Amino acid sequence: MKVLIIGAGIIGAACARTMSRRGIDVTILERGSAVGATSSAGEGNLLLSDKAPGPELALATYSLDLWRRLPAALADEIGNFTSIEFEAKGGLVVATSAEESAGLAQLAEAQRGAGVEARLLSVDETLELEPDVTPSMIAAVHYPQDAQVQPTIATEALLASARAAGARVLVDTLVTGSRRDASGRVVGLTTNRGDFDADHVVVAAGPWSGEVATRLGGTLDVGPRKGWLLVTTPMAHRIAHKVYDANYVGAVQSDGGERQFATVLESTAAGTVLIGSSRENVGFDADADVAAWGAIAARAVRLMPALRDAAIMRAYCGFRPFSRDHLPVIGADRDVAGLWYAAGHEGAGIGLAPGTAELLTALLLGAPTDIPAEPFSSLRPSLARAA
Amino acid sequence: MTPDVLVIGAGPAGLAAARAASRVGATVALLDASDYVGGQYWRHLPASRAALDQSVLHHDWSSFLALRDEIEGDPRCDVVTSAHVVAIDGDGVHVLIGASDGRDRERRVYRAAAVVLATGAFDRALPVPGWDLPGVFTAGGAQALAKGERVAVGERVVVAGTGPFLLPVAASLGQAGSRVVGVFEASPASRLLRHWLARPWEFGATPDKVGELARYAWGQLRERVPYHVGQAVTAIHGDDHVTSVTVSTLDSSWRPLARGSRTIEVDAVCLGHGFTPRLELAIAAGSRLSAQRFVEVDADQRTSATPYFAAGEITGIGGVDLALAEGAIAGHVAARGRADDLELRHARHARHALVRFATRIDAAHAIGSNWSTWLTPATIVCRCEDVTFGDLLRVSRQSRATGLRSLKLLSRAGLGPCQGRVCGRSVEALLEVRAPGGHLTGGSTMDRRPISTPVRLGELATWTTPEVRKP
Q: Is B161:B311 a contact under the CB 8 Å cutoff?
């Protein structure tokens, strides 16, 4: 079986690794460079905490289990590669108002019912875990399962593993259209570097997936949702957990008409602190935006006043692949045979990548899936409703 | 803050732009991050500490004094020093006024009818084994210490690298009390002769430049500083400080030859391999760059992004006279001066000849393609993050990555506090030739830095509301 994957971000890389290790002949076609966009512009979140019970949490739980096994598996597959910095550091969600606090306790309760470890903490317990959180907080929930990886390195490691299993990664290769047989089935792609044959084509082009689907004659409503991150200079000060404000869950689930801000703070292995983030649906505009940085900074200082004097040396923006019902599309195009999607993970693509790869590979092979795939189908009713 | 013309950078180009804009009646704000105007080129001691006649230390000191006095005495021109431009966005030019590592600094947003970017260039030093030892300086850094602080970097010093800039650096070191035991120009004699002696009739158009170089050459002879061509410092030795250097003879691609290397005892080394333009603000403004990675400008010094103009080293490395000419044109046009102005015509005429001169220098002193042969796997390339040449080789080989962002994160090169300002071009060059296909893909470079100077989180936290406008 020959599969062409469009896009060498985390989703394309994870799919390429899983498929090539099952004996599928995989070629990734990447317009620019591998990991050149969304997958290298985020924190590398592997979170359960920001997900309400439902299909996304099921996929996140399934994926997190696969992530835990990846460092050892990758060591076998590609040897002495740069560490992907997998760390189960745990998440700490902090409520600073009575309203947030009530919502957070309710969410944690529901998540516990779905098997997530979520422990409600008092102010004192919270400050013991993270002494620099604002003492004016009301309540917090500790999620010990939340983890992270360095997303760029992780993607490159998955690509290296895929290559070791026989996959090809072609950069500077722009897909211009699909090739069809008499029945309308996709049997290959046209590119700026010539034509390619395939039994199946997978669109894993992140926020460009909707645009690519249209180019191939398919239907997919996935577009960009912009976000900014600030980066401090390396600091001795360490934040042990992923610390975020309870508003984050609301922002993640919001519909993106207006600009949303929610604080997420964490130290990286290199000693910098990442400070996020914003969400807005404004196309692919990457121009600087001081007011957005200011809003992120103001919220961050409220959540952790000790960061007031931290020096910000860099701001970068990325584009999350936004799907209207906040669920990725993992499965076949609703009309075009041979055309598949693994796209629309919004800000959770790093965390959801290994599970997405397993699901899609099973669907391609006609094998049973480990978790139900229907909620991610392009035919699901919530997509029709949202449109 | 709404001047007619905002000028960013008060080196030669910025000073000339501010003067030209004011002369045609515009209100001007001239910003510079340092405490004094003059830029790197006219870096000097504050008046309260000036002990020596500055004209001894500075070429063209009288032109600087005239320029500075005119601007500082000009009621239409607001000179703002210690002004750090943090970012440019659709709202304006965002500036903090105060110490570079200050907190709670004054915030200003400039919304000018035209902006002249005159941000200049950093001096560049290629990595050399041992270049992270105390006692090693960039040529520009050593010159700044000599000219600005009157500090000699060492007693026995070598100056190595490429370009005519090595000569004034050696002269400044001598004036500050160092003994310059050698100046080593890596470009071979054949290349220098080919480009310096080509089209001799052009020299008639730039007699000042020729005179300037002749003066430095004469100064070297008089001071008996040995000037060597086709040679480079290819290793620097010492335990906790520089004690000696290895000087090698190079082939035309800068690969050290087996024969002809020797050791010289020194206590300081100055390395200068040309200049890297400071492009982040031009990129933030949306200005297009050339293939050589300078800001593209038209005959009026306009960039591709309205209302931004650019002048000086960010449009191409050309030296003080070209910067003055470009600044004069940019300032005049930005202030909507008359197109038939006599001074504008003079400046255009000077620019034409000086650009040709700069092209000649570029060709004569281009960096050789095989300079990396003098590196060892243990040579530090990125000094902020302690990334070695061996680290770059390893991540490139293991990942086969062609994207700069991947390679930076895999190796951590360019991710430290300097954000690739020191090592960026060298890291890119080292990775480029090793990438599968022989080039990097995706178009990313280290020049894009939306935050152009560090800002404290607490300062940024007050930037959510519009600046309070002064009446």
A: no
Give the model confidence (pLDDT) of A27-77 as tens digits. 999 999 999 999 999 999 999 999 999 999 999 999 999 999 999 999 999
DSSP state of B253: T
Element (H, E) at A375: none
List the one residue out of B268, B50, B53 whose CA is nearest residue B179: B268
CB of B440 within 8 Å of a chain A CB? The answer is yes
In this complex, do B94 and A159 lie within 8 Å of one another by their Cβ atoms? no
Peptide bond preceding B75: is omega within 30 degrees of 0, i.e. cis?
no
Q: In chain A, which residues have their Cβ closer than 8 Å to the Cβ of B405?
A: 33, 35-36, 40, 152
User: Chain A residues with CB inside 8 Å of B414's CB?
Assistant: none
> pLDDT value at position A255?
66
DSSP assignment string, B362-395? HHHTPPPTTGGGG--TT-EEETTTTEEHHHHHHH
A154 touches chain B (CB under 8 A): no
3-state secondary structure of B79: strand
Nearest to B16 by CA among B448, B383, B333: B333
DSSP-based three-state secondary structure for A339:
strand
With contact defined as beta carbons under 8 Å apart, do B353 and B206 qualify?
Answer: yes
Concatenated DSSP letters of B390-416:
HHHHHHHHHH---BHHHHHHHH-TT-S
- For chain A, which domains are there? 2-80+150-221+325-386 (3.50.50.60), 91-144+224-323 (3.30.9.10)
The Cα–Cα gap between B46 and B183 comes to 30
Rg (CA), chain A: 20
CA distances from B19 to A387, B10, B75, B328 (A): 59, 11, 12, 7
* Backbone CA torsion sign across B183, B185, B189, B192: negative
CA distance B357 to B206: 8
CA–CA separation, B320 and B59 (whole Å): 10
Calpha distance B7→B27 (Å, rounded):
11
Give CA–CA dist B188/B364, Å, rounded.
9
pLDDT value at A144 more than 90: yes
How far apart CA B130 and CA B396 sit, in angstroms, is 23
CB contact under 8 Å between B400 and A160, yes or no, is yes
Sign of the four-CA dihedral B56, B61, B65, B66: positive
CB A291 within 8 A of CB B426: no
Contact between A280 and A257 under an 8 Å Cβ cutoff? The reply is: no
Domains of chain B, start order: 5-122+276-337 (3.50.50.60), 125-273 (3.50.50.60), 375-438 (1.10.10)
Phi, psi dihedral angles at A131 (to 5 degrees): -60, -20
Rounded to an integer, what distance in angstroms lies between the CA atom of residue A203 and that of residue A138?
44
Alpha-carbon dihedral of residues A73, A75, A79, A81, nearest 10 degrees? 120
Q: Is the ipTM of this complex over 0.85?
A: yes
**Rounded-to-integer distance, Cα B317 and Cα B196, Å:** 17
Query: Which B residues in the span 71-90 are in contact with A, Cβ-Cβ below 8 Å?
Result: 86-90
> Low-confidence residues of chain B, pLDDT below 70?
45-59, 200-201, 203-205, 207, 210, 213-223, 465-471
Tens digit of each residue's pLDDT (9 = 90 or more) over B360-416: 888 889 999 999 999 999 999 999 999 999 999 999 999 999 999 999 999 999 998
Within 8 A of B454 by CB-CB distance, chain A residues are: 233, 311-313
Q: Cα–Cα distance between A150 and B410 in angstroms, integer? A: 9
